[in-house]
Design brief:
heterodimer, A: mainly alpha, about 35% helix, flat, B: alpha/beta, 11 strands
């Protein structure tokens, strides 16, 4: 398998990470060597194996649905790079 | 008293309890040594003035019933600390000041400890040498220009150099045990679900665990006792009966069955690692343990599995860094452009690489071939351990395939860097506890570690084995303070 530049551009779009030509070439090289190494898994037959989806074999605990923390608005907004009153500010989305 | 920083945690606790030392004296000693040790670059954020104030307050009304009475501690910068900058070693969180505290750190403050500062680590804990940190390399106190391991590299360096008596790190694929091995210190990765993940910057949620790092096994047991609690704020925290690890610690491991997995004899393993392992087996026998050969047939598939599962989870966890709610923002022409520039400028190369791998293996058309396949192999790896534990109580392996390497030696080859974690990654995939203890030196005089892997929730047992072996090994770290002018 080989990851080409077109695929890198596609993944970068999905990842929301901008990538220029030079970086795309470097990433293609790195990802190909990593995937060569990952392909080793294909040696194993796993048709009848159940996937492991949770390492802790416990069921989730139930709890009462009650509000425990209140008035966190200031805390929530405190670290935002740009805000206006109680809102996060982002570049204009709708014309 | 310059000797204060040479004391182990247990000795410091004893001295404070018997009023031979005050918290202020102890804190001052560690702060002074940390200040003289800037060349190690172990700290990202120092909080010395607050630490000294807190120590003074503690001394005014000392509560000597606590387990860590007035003990100064620096922690890995992956734990959210209320009102103190938490960066995860990343530019994207360079200005992030949490408004809440992680459960694990809250536990140590509740037991009397005092925060000294935040320790350097690989960016988002992704690395094995601390070289991916936005805040620069960390020096290993063993030798100049040697990596301290990673991702808890600032933590291992700080404990080995005695800038903090103990510390907490996090371990997703070896990030506590590998740096402990590289610096001649002790590091425990607890069972998944033992320590709460609440307030820890997330990397790979099904693998991440916090754990103690210390100069010796006893200190490690004491810290584990404090940090391991059931926490309803973490839905994967497990409510099981926790031991009083330090009180129940014993060197009597007579008749314990210890397994030696043949698959850990990997191709190209240096002879000194093989010899160390053999020596370890002899030490375990001397302690009265019974040695049994076992097989973990899927060991070779653990790293490829990890490099699907961990990046997949990371790509999802790191989607939150979008320049909107907190952290770094790069301006863009529109919303999408802002996201893409923020993440491109805010994340370092290794983190971007892993997000891209994770996004790819989860993307339409590839999910079954990669992610589902990896989850199935993960099951096989866990089954291997379950089968082995029918026959043995614990497993003994080397911690790493080599001793610490030079800064810059492996940065251009991601796969060779990943191979560092070959002995530690299977333990995370199976959710088991593992401890690394220093066990010898290589020809260059650099420390080497042995790993003891336990059954789930059996921390007490591996701590006991480590405690018994530690006495036989009688390891001495060669640290010359070369960085202090």
């Amino acid at each position: 398998m080989s990851i080409d530049l077109k695929t890198i551009k596609h993944i970068s779009k999905l990842s929301r990470i901008s990538v220029d030509e030079k970086k795309a070439e470097k990433l293609a090289g790195d990802l190909n060597s990593i995937f060569d190494f990952i392909e080793k898994l294909n040696e194993l037959k796993t048709d009848n194996v159940e996937p492991l989806t949770s390492i802790a074999e416990t069921t989730l605990k139930l709890r009462l649905d009650e509000v425990k923390s209140k008035n966190l608005r200031d805390q929530v907004i405190k670290n935002s790079p740009k805000e206006n009153e109680d809102y996060f500010v982002v570049p204009k989305v709708i014309e | 008293m310059s000797d204060i920083t040479k004391h182990s945690l247990s000795e410091l606790v004893e001295n404070i309890k018997s009023k031979k030392l005050s918290s202020s004296e102890v804190t001052k000693a560690f702060v002074e040594r940390s200040e003289k040790s800037k060349e190690l670059n172990a700290y990202i954020t120092e909080d010395y003035a607050n630490a000294l104030n807190k120590a003074k307050k503690f001394d005014e009304k000392p509560n000597l019933d606590l387990k860590l009475p007035g003990i100064p501690i620096a922690v890995k910068d992956l734990f959210c600390t209320k009102d103190l900058r938490t960066t995860a070693g990343s530019k994207i969180l360079n200005n992030f000041i949490p408004t809440y505290e992680s459960t694990v750190t809250q536990n140590i403050w509740n037991d009397g400890a005092i925060l000294m500062g935040k320790l350097n680590c690989d960016e988002f804990a992704m690395g094995s040498s601390n070289e991916t940190s936005f805040f620069g390399n960390v020096q290993n106190p063993i030798n100049k220009n040697l990596v301290p391991g990673g991702s808890s590299g600032g933590s291992s360096s700080a404990v080995a150099a005695q800038l903090t008596p103990i510390t907490i790190g996090t371990d997703t694929g070896g990030s506590i045990r590998q740096p402990a091995s590289f610096t001649g210190t002790v590091g425990l990765k607890p069972t998944y679900g033992s320590c709460s993940r609440y307030g820890i910057v997330a990397f790979a949620s099904s693998l991440d665990q916090a754990g103690p790092m210390a100069q010796n096994v006893k200190d490690c047991a004491l810290l584990q006792e404090v940090i391991s609690t059931y926490d309803e704020k973490d839905s994967t925290s497990i409510d099981f009966k926790r031991n009083e690890y330090s009180k129940e610690l014993t060197k009597d491991i007579k008749g314990k069955k210890i397994g030696i997995p043949k698959e850990y004899r990997v191709d190209g393993m240096p002879k000194e690692i093989e010899d160390l392992w053999k020596k370890g087996i002899e030490y375990a026998k001397d302690c009265g343990a019974e040695i049994i050969d076992i097989s973990l047939p899927h060991t070779n598939y653990a790293l490829p599995t990890y490099y699907i599962v961990a990046p997949a989870e990371a790509s999802s966890n790191l989607a939150r860094y979008d320049g909107v709610k907190y952290g770094f923002r790069a301006e863009g022409d529109n919303l999408i452009d802002m996201y893409e520039k923020t993440r491109s400028e805010g994340f370092g190369a290794e983190v971007q690489r892993r997000i891209m791998i994770g996004t790819y293996v989860l993307s339409s058309g590839y999910y079954d071939a990669y992610y589902l396949k990896a989850q199935k192999v993960r099951k096989l790896i866990k089954n291997d351990f379950d089968d082995a534990y029918e026959k043995v109580d614990a497993i003994l392996t080397p911690s790493t395939p080599s001793s610490a390497f030079k800064i810059g030696e492996k940065t251009n080859d991601p796969v060779s860097m990943y191979l560092n974690d070959i002995f530690t990654v299977p333990v995370n995939l199976a959710g088991l506890p593992g401890i690394s203890i220093p066990a010898g030196h290589d020809a260059k005089g650099y420390p080497l570690g042995l790993q003891i892997i336990g059954k789930a929730f059996d921390e007490q047992n591996i701590l006991n084995i480590a405690y018994a072996m530690e006495e036989k090994i009688n390891f001495k770290n060669n640290i010359t303070d070369w960085w202090i002018k």
